[in-house]
Amino acid sequence: MTTTLVTGIAELVTHDPTHGPGLGTVENAAIVVDDDAVLWTGPATSAPAADRRIDVAGRAVIPGFVDSHTHLVFAGDRAREFEARMTGERYDGGGIATTIAATRAADDARLMANGRRLLAELRAQGTTTVEIKSGYGLTVADEARLLRIARELTPETTFLGGHVVPPEFAADRAAYVELATGPMLDACAPHARWADVFCEPRSLAAFDGDESRTILEAAAHAGLELRVHAGQLGPGPGVALAVELGAASVDHCTFLTDDDVDALAAAARDSGPVATLLPGVEFSTRSPYPDARRLLDAGVTVALATDCNPGTCYSTSMPWCIALAVHEMGMTPAEALGAATLGGAQALRRPDVGHLRVGARPDLCVVDAPSYRHLAYRAGVPIARHWRSGQTSHEAPCPTCTRQ
Ligand SMILES: N=CN[C@@H](CCC(=O)O)C(=O)O
Ligand SMILES: [Zn+2]
């Protein structure tokens, strides 16, 4: 297998503790990879030989981003709903029905084309691992086809039959929960690794604590691992449920009680749920940002993700989320980068990604700047190039950053 030596790295972020605490950063660094793994990292002066060499001319190299929360398979958009919010309307989840109708009406080719378009956007901004949820079909056939399409884009697929009660079941919520825990789950489980539920207090939207428990327990029984949307619209039962049921991640966490933070902190000592924060949602819905500082100081593992969807955050950009986390949520540039790489990997229980230790997948990106700090400092700085596992030796060289 061809090996590649990347040199000219002003700053390499590895998350390898042998390179020091924090991000495990090496200055004036080099990295050797093949198609499957990181083989070596360290100072350029002691780099081993490789079959080919790429010089990134004084740029920073970081692990590829791990976006652990997206809804990429849908049709239509909700620009008018967004416009109304910008003039004062509150987000309450009601617009999800618009996307459900558009998605049900779209054929597979259209959904796949839209998913591929958004995935290409994510990749161009440095995301190398992505999770994709269903949740805009909410019939047995539609949820299964959304997951079949998502599976062609990523192995990290999530059954979100518990997104909202679809309009045709408005008068009989229990019947919908029965469907989502019965025939719909049976049709979807073969195409999904994860199950998720949008859990809020009964008075707000989505599924209450009892309904969410029923949906999550059935999914776990079917062999799916769990994640939960919680605390997006108000404090609710979702965090406690995620902790109790051993979910990998609890996402949004915009409104947390003291008990929620305590429960997450206590569970963190035993690999409890990661708190996945989605600052693009607060930006796009004009909501208060989650208290990242409080979670970090309590010892909770924090991830950052885009939540790319047509309603609450129509963005695929992890660098933008990092900039928001630093500017608006009090995270340091190092904490934000860690949350967008290692944090996302933990939220997906993926020990092979989100870092560049020897043996990791060779998923990395070249920032068009000398330091990772520029992701927040020079918000909007482009990702000059990225590699993903299996693509290191045949990707075309980037004209702006390589001298091969
Ligand atoms: N909270 C629920 N689901 C999405 C929004 C879905 C939509 O509005 O279309 C979210 O994560 O924000
Ligand atoms: Zn979401």
TrEMBL record:
It is found in: Cytoplasm. 4-imidazolone-5-propanoate binds at residues 78, 136, 163, 232, 312. Fe(3+) binds at residues 69, 71, 229, 307. One of its GO terms (biological process) is L-histidine catabolic process to glutamate and formamide. GO terms for cellular component: cytoplasm. N-formimidoyl-L-glutamate binds at residues 136, 309, 311. It is an enzyme of class 3 (hydrolase). Its main location: cytoplasm. Its cofactor is Zn(2+); Fe(3+). SUPFAM superfamilies: Composite domain of metallo-dependent hydrolases, Metallo-dependent hydrolases. Pathway: Amino-acid degradation; L-histidine degradation into L-glutamate; N-formimidoyl-L-glutamate from L-histidine: step 3/3. Its EC number is 3.5.2.7. InterPro entries: Amidohydro-rel, HutI, Metal-dep_hydrolase_composite, Metal_Hydrolase. Catalyzes the hydrolytic cleavage of the carbon-nitrogen bond in imidazolone-5-propanoate to yield N-formimidoyl-L-glutamate. It is the third step in the universal histidine degradation pathway. This is Imidazolonepropionase. It comes from Jiangella aurantiaca.
